[in-house]
């Protein structure tokens, strides 16, 4: 498939999606459409075991939604714009493979919301974060009011969304918004190392663990525990479980095949 607003490269079991609208990589309808298509492609590609999402250039992961596109939309058109972002972001969030956001430069508004959909967030020490929509007379519309409180707590999320302040990578780490802060010139190297480490894990178990966590956090504890057992049984039925337990018993390194 040919992409214009993003780039998609697959290498050694790792796919890298690059938002390709430098220098600020604003998110528009075309980006959402192509992210959705890429997620579908990667979901069905068994050779891909892990995914990295990043932005072209060194100024921004994504500096927010494309205000030039949004400015003259009608309420109905804005609803469709938000729905397009929702479809794309939910596909990324629900992708049955681990997804790493490699965040260099600005991750504001929709850019921060895209990062929230990923399983890991690695930030360059030069990265900046924020949900500044309040300054435009609007609110986050691509998951910020929902995913951010679930990640860092409602009180902290209200502070960030109500004030609209922009904060650095160190603050993002202290908030629990990112997993790790890395020197900017090492960001992609570290992201690839993490992706390769994840790609070596058993794919079925990885998918089941992600599904159990992502779905379970929105369920009551009893229903979530039932879900966990169902996911455990699915992983237990895999060929990789046989390989993993066999390797453990034989005191050797497992050779997982993703089945």
TrEMBL record:
Superkingdom of the source species: Bacteria
Query: What EC number(s) does this enzyme carry?
Result: 4.2.1.150
User: Which pathway does the database say it acts in?
Assistant: Lipid metabolism; butanoate metabolism
What keywords sit in the KW lines? Lyase
Pfam families per the record?
ECH_1
Which Gene Ontology BP annotations are present?
A: fatty acid beta-oxidation
Q: Which reaction does it catalyse?
A: a short-chain (3S)-3-hydroxyacyl-CoA = a short-chain (2E)-enoyl-CoA + H2O
Q: InterPro entries, alphabetically?
A: ClpP/crotonase-like_dom_sf, Enoyl-CoA_hydra/iso, Enoyl-CoA_hydra_C
Q: Which GO terms describe its molecular function?
A: 3-hydroxyacyl-CoA dehydratase activity
Oligomeric state and interaction partners are given as: Homotetramer.
Q: Which family does it belong to?
A: Belongs to the enoyl-CoA hydratase/isomerase family.
**Which named protein is this?**
short-chain-enoyl-CoA hydratase
Q: Which organism is it from?
A: Desulfosporosinus youngiae DSM 17734
């Amino acid at each position: 498939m040919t992409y214009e607003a993003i780039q998609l490269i697959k290498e050694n079991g790792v796919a890298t999606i690059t938002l390709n609208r430098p220098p600020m990589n604003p998110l528009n309808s075309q980006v959402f459409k192509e992210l959705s298509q890429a997620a579908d492609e990667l979901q069905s590609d068994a050779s891909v075991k892990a995914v990295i999402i990043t932005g072209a250039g060194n100024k921004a992961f994504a500096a927010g939604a494309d205000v030039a596109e949004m400015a003259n939309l009608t309420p109905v058109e804005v609803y469709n714009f938000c729905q397009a972002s929702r479809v794309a972001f939910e596909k990324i969030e629900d992708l049955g493979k681990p997804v790493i956001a490699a965040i260099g430069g600005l991750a504001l508004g929709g850019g921060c919301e895209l990062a929230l959909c990923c399983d890991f967030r690695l930030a360059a020490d030069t990265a900046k974060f924020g949900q500044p929509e309040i300054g435009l007379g609007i609110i986050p519309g691509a998951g910020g009011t929902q995913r951010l409180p679930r990640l860092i707590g409602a009180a902290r999320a209200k502070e960030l969304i109500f004030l609209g302040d922009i904060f650095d990578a160190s603050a993002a780490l202290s908030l629990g918004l990112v997993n790790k802060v890395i020197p900017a010139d090492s960001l992609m190297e570290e992201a690839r190392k993490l992706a390769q480490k994840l790609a070596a894990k058993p794919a079925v178990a990885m998918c089941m663990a992600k599904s159990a966590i992502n779905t379970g956090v929105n369920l009551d504890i009893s229903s979530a525990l039932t879900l966990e057992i169902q996911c455990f049984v699915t992983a237990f039925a895999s060929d990789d479980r046989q390989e993993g337990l066999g390797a453990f018993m034989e005191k050797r390194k497992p050779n997982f095949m993703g089945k």
